């Protein structure tokens, strides 16, 4: 057990440390959109989030699979956060049990970490993790987000695949809920915390299209990549062209970390304002040694010249717990 705890601590340090970046990466080599299964990469994660304004809730679940050099088994780390928008209460739970108690297999996709499970059954997924007990049924097929990866030579790279709209039903915090969710899957050797920081938002528009915007930064704050992916009503992904991201209001969290909580997002097809529903969504993860802001956003503006609204989730990596920024 002591050795397992030391390895888990090493994984947390790896997540927040400057690791060697990937030196052989071919952007022309794309994974399949259906490639949901685990890989032999340094870093991999599966992620489900949902903004449920009609239910007064927002949530996210993530399972990390970390493969440090010299460790025979992958290390599984899981997060669940649930925000009750009526009371403002945020429940954040981390699971990092003994090495080897988590698994990842495909096909079909099945992830476990202790008694938490994410399992593909037929055309749907069942997620059971702490306060989450929900079924997720894809409303669109999986896509590779253009250009197929996040990152740069300075930060390392992650392939990027996802399902941008899933019908959700089940129980959260013990009560029956319905809504929509978003699934992401990334793998490679881009390590969050110091080597790579990012600003990410996933938006489900009322008109039926979905938008993902991802800005990757170095530890010093230099932007190395800005990408946007539009997934149309039929589930076809295309790049947002002439994309710009203008920061607005900020909020200061622990250690002086500054998070931008409102943005103007513009491209040829849209001009949108993305605003945090509430400010105090900073999560301090002991299992990964990373501080990040994660919470629901509301969206308004124009889409192809017509008024549009939407909902979504936003994630901003503030850095390692070892220092503010």
Automatic annotation (TrEMBL):
<protein>
    <submittedName>
        <fullName>AttH protein</fullName>
    </submittedName>
</protein>
<dbReference type="Pfam" id="PF07143">
    <property type="entry name" value="CrtC"/>
</dbReference>
<feature type="domain" description="AttH">
    <location>
        <begin position="43"/>
        <end position="189"/>
    </location>
</feature>
<keyword id="KW-0732">Signal</keyword>
<dbReference type="InterPro" id="IPR010791">
    <property type="entry name" value="AttH_dom"/>
</dbReference>
<dbReference type="Pfam" id="PF17186">
    <property type="entry name" value="Lipocalin_9"/>
</dbReference>
<feature type="signal peptide">
    <location>
        <begin position="1"/>
        <end position="19"/>
    </location>
</feature>
<dbReference type="InterPro" id="IPR023374">
    <property type="entry name" value="AttH-like_dom_sf"/>
</dbReference>
């Amino acid at each position: 057990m002591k050795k397992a705890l030391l390895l888990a601590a090493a994984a947390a340090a790896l997540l927040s440390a400057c690791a060697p970046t990937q030196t052989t990466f071919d952007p022309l080599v794309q994974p399949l959109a259906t490639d949901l299964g685990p890989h032999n990469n340094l870093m991999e994660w599966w992620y489900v989030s949902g903004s449920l304004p009609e239910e007064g809730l927002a949530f996210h679940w993530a399972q990390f699979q970390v493969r440090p050099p010299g460790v025979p088994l992958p290390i599984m780390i899981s997060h669940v956060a649930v925000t009750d928008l009526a009371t403002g209460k945020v429940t954040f739970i981390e699971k990092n049990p003994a090495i080897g108690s988590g698994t990842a297999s495909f096909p079909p996709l099945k992830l476990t970490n202790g008694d938490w499970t994410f399992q593909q059954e037929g055309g749907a997924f069942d997620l059971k993790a702490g306060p989450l007990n929900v079924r997720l049924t894809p409303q669109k097929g999986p896509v590779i987000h253009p250009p197929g990866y996040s990152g740069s030579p300075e930060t390392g790279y992650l392939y990027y695949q996802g399902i941008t709209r899933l019908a959700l039903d089940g129980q959260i915090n013990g009560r029956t809920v319905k809504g929509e969710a978003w699934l992401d899957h990334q793998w490679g050797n881009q390590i969050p915390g110091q080597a790579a920081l990012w600003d990410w938002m996933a938006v489900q528009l009322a008109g039926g299209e979905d938008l993902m915007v991802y800005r990757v930064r170095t530890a010093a704050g230099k932007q190395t990549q800005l990408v946007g992916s539009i997934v149309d009503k039929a589930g076809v992904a295309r790049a947002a062209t002439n994309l710009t991201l203008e920061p607005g209001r900020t909020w200061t969290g622990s250690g002086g970390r500054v998070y931008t909580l409102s943005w103007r997002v513009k491209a040829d097809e849209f001009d949108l304002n993305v605003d945090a529903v509430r400010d105090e969504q900073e999560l301090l993860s002991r299992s990964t040694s990373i501080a990040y802001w994660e919470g629901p956003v509301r969206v308004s503006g124009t889409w192809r010249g017509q008024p549009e609204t939407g909902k979504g989730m936003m994630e901003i990596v503030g850095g390692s717990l070892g220092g503010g920024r």
